[in-house]
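Sequence of Integration host factor subunit beta (Nonlabens agnitus).
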Amino acid sequence: MTKADIVSKISDKLGMEKTEVQAAVESFMDEVKGSLETGENVYLRGFGSFIVKTRAEKTGRNISKNTTIKIPAHNIPAFKPAKVFVEGVKSNVKVK
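Predicted 3D structure, token representation.
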């Protein structure tokens, strides 16, 4: 599902213009992104949490030059789904 699909479905459900829905979806994504960029987590009850995870420093390998490199500690955005969300997916989606 793409952002356009989400906008279309919400527009159909609520009877709103697609441009209004797209602006709302874009604003939501901008707010989540902005919060994470400032180190603030976003919690949505019943859906999940957008969090900032810290990755520790580690040693990696450059295979083409056969050398080791240090990968510094860094932060990454992550999503942790709520229990209700996980249980819904487990019970409704068949294993392939």
